[in-house]
Design goal:
By secondary structure, the chain is of the alpha/beta class. The protein is 38% helix and 11% strand.
Length: 338
């Protein structure tokens, strides 16, 4: 019959969600346009490294002896942030620091203030007119100015209207104040990363949700972690931290170019699969899990973390963390398929 019994790939559900398909189509059209314009494409991302990380396979003798024993647990964690392109790592763009939070999600270590500070340094180290590809982590989506929402306090709405010199009455209800705010805000939010990049002559392009295969730095992180696992002998965080620059150095420009070429092949695969055609597209910003509360966000929040679950129990950045509604949809689909 041509059927086989296999594990269900939950990512396929996200690939086929209408809103995420629209994100993917817009992204593919925009990045194709930028490549035609011969713009440099810069990819950035964050990852982690645990002090107890080590290869999962090792050589043993007939009695099962050999190799070295690693301590139990994951150990302490480093947070790593960097950027690169088909020509290799971006100069002076690495950021490595020690985790201070006891959290399973390394994204908790970063906030919009720290990210924007690093981002400003990145902007002066990339080629003019670059396109910067980033994902939808909350700290990537901080706005230039926080606009009150329907759930904001009345006083906050009044203060915002006062700063904008928009007249209102003390007798106005919250709904009246919010209506005036909606009439006064721009059609699109002004994101801090977008505005900073624009001021330096660059463009920010956000990748679609759950599409880590469209960012070559995900493959680069695998190379970096492979080096760290092989050379991590003491399982001490300080020693692991000293290995990170060498791990970066181990990823050559040729490796970066190969990974970028692979990503372009993935783009073509999606392009053909989705039956896309050449046309001009509007700029599309994905509002997903921003740090600023917004009652009017159209795309439902989905969280992604890790790089596929590894032997240390870390979940990979490519894997979706589904909420109960998503799981119920999958269970319902499974019942109907049966």
């Amino acid at each position: 019959m041509g059927f086989r019994h296999t594990l269900r790939d939950d990512k396929l559900y996200f690939y086929e969600r209408r809103d995420i398909m629209e994100q993917r189509h817009n992204y593919l059209k925009k990045i194709r346009q930028y490549r035609r314009e011969d713009r440099p494409i810069v990819y950035l991302d964050e990852t982690w490294a645990n002090s107890h990380m080590a290869p999962e396979r090792l050589w043993l003798d007939e009695q099962g002896r050999g190799g070295w024993k690693r301590p139990s647990g994951k150990g302490q964690r480093l947070i790593i942030l960097h950027a690169g392109s088909e020509t290799g790592w971006t100069p002076n763009a690495d950021l490595v620091f020690r985790s201070k939070k006891n959290s399973t999600d390394y994204h908790d270590e970063m906030n919009s203030e720290h990210f924007l500070e690093w981002f400003q340094k990145l902007l002066v180290n990339i080629q003019p007119g670059s396109v910067i590809v980033l994902d939808n982590a909350p700290y990537h989506n901080s706005v230039v100015e926080k606009v009150p929402t329907k759930s904001s306090r009345k006083k906050e709405m009044q203060e915002w209207l006062t700063r904008k010199r928009i007249p209102f009455s003390d007798k106005d209800l919250k709904k009246d104040l919010f209506a005036k705010i909606q009439l006064s805000v721009p059609n699109r939010k002004l994101y801090a990363t977008n505005e900073a990049a624009k001021a330096c002559g660059h463009i920010v392009l956000r990748s679609p949700v759950a599409h880590c295969e469209l960012n070559p730095i995900e493959l680069v992180w695998a190379d970096v972690k492979r080096y760290l696992k092989v050379h991590n002998k003491t399982f001490k965080l300080a020693d692991l931290e000293q290995l990170v620059p060498d791990a970066f150095q181990s990823v050559t420009p040729e490796m970066w170019a190969k990974h970028c070429q692979h990503v372009q092949e993935e783009e073509e695969r999606f392009w053909e699969k989705d039956g896309l055609q050449e046309e001009s597209v509007e700029e599309y910003i994905i509002e997903l899990g921003t740090e600023d509360d917004d009652d009017d966000i159209e795309v439902r929040d989905i969280e992604f973390e890790g790089e596929g679950e590894d032997s240390d129990g870390e979940q990979d950045e490519c894997e979706p963390v589904m909420d109960e509604n998503d799981r119920e949809l999958l269970r319902s689909d499974a019942v109907s398929d049966a």
